[in-house]
């Protein structure tokens, strides 16, 4: 039997944990901080004060957005599930797989649009106003809104596919849908990782092949030393939009590539860029993208299996109202579970980043340039070099700047 009240209890439990985490996040973010003596060895007081102010405002905005989104999602689904406890079988014509898939697509598209509008004020504040106020953004508000619209459009496409496939699997395979949905998630994640460098990233930024002969020689030397074939290093023209500098590894299979911001190349020495390159090659060498996908898939299976256990069997015949409630409850349950499991994902990401850091040092043997590169990256990104311990534990995907420097210096 379709147990709407059990799902509602599960959602309330997850919501309580999520709001508890967020309340602690907001309290910690608002507490006054002083930089440590260790941080003062590498950064001046002016930078540390500015970076902490920027971080505090960003943390508070992020926490408030989380509260707003989750409360609205809860009230969106709670009424439907309360009614579900009273009338678990509804009159009406049974819904087929094709119509159910269409319903799932429309429902998840509507939810995605709703959430994008809820998040817009917070995202505009953090992504545009704060970045502009602290001298990090070079975008106009119209350009920022265009990027936000593109991002929302890509998200809606993913939601449409997720909604339609989930509905089809639930209707066609009512007993085994959790396993099949996990397989679909795995295949979809691999597909998205494959097309991201070719389809998604170019929609937001311009990329050109790395042409600097000295850097190309460094790439060949590093990849040769690592025993790897690295045939795609691109430069992203980030300076049109931001003063931040960065680098990343993306893609899977034939779309693997290392991307360097042009701001990174212009603001760092050759040895520092070499260290950053070696770090990204570490991600390539250890297959971190694939490992991340596998970890996410395992987490997805746990969440979906828990939901299936709580929900019980769906009523027969299944009508559109039943399916809508089920899909909406699954979306909220999965979203809350994902947030509650954030520390696990953050921990794994920090492990990957630390492994890539150690690899870059082993490959180059240049701890001095590693330290100076970390200092330059923190300065250019106005990074919080010593985030509050709870925030670091909960959401920090990289070791902190001070931790990375400490590791490089063997302390």
Q: TL;DR?
A:
The protein has 411 residues and is mainly alpha-helical. It is 73% helix and 4% strand.
List keywords for this structure.
mainly alpha; 2 domains; 4 strands; 73% helix; Zincin-like; single chain; 15 helices; 4-stranded mixed beta sheet; 411 residues
Describe the structure.
There is one protein chain. The protein is mainly alpha-helical and 411 residues long. The protein has two domains: 4-203 and 308-342, no CATH class; 207-289 and 348-408, Zincin-like (2-Layer Sandwich), CATH 3.30.2010.10. Helices cover 73% and strands 4% of the residues. It has 15 helices and four strands. It has helices at 4-30, 37-40, 45-86, 97-133, 141-172, 177-200, 213-226, 262-267, 270-286, 288-311, 320-340, 342-364, 367-381, 389-395, 401-408, and strands at 207-209, 233-236, 247-250, 257-261. A four-stranded mixed beta sheet has the order 1-2-4-3. Strand 3 and strand 4 (257-261) form a beta hairpin. Helix 1 runs antiparallel to helix 3, helix 5 (141-172) runs antiparallel to helix 6 and helix 10 packs antiparallel against helix 12. The longest helix has 42 residues, at 45-86. Residues 85-91 have low confidence and may be disordered. InterPro entries: CAXX_Prtase_1 (IPR027057), Peptidase_M48 (IPR001915), Peptidase_M48_N (IPR032456).
Spatial strand order of the main sheet: 1-2-4-3
Give the uncertain stretches in residue-range form.
Answer: 85-91
**Helical content class:** over 70%
Listing every helix as H and every strand as E from the N terminus to the C terminus, the arrangement reads HHHHHHEHEEEHHHHHHHH
Summed up, the domain count is 2
Structural class: mainly alpha
* Residues in β-strands, percent: under 5%
Q: What is Rg?
A: 23 Å
Mean pLDDT: 91
Give the number of DSSP strands.
4
Q: How far from one another are the termini?
A: 59 Å
InterPro entries: CAXX_Prtase_1 (IPR027057), Peptidase_M48 (IPR001915), Peptidase_M48_N (IPR032456)
Transmembrane segments: 12-31, 57-79, 100-122, 153-171, 177-196, 293-314, 326-348
Binding site for Zn(2+): 279, 283, 353
Protein name: M48 family metallopeptidase
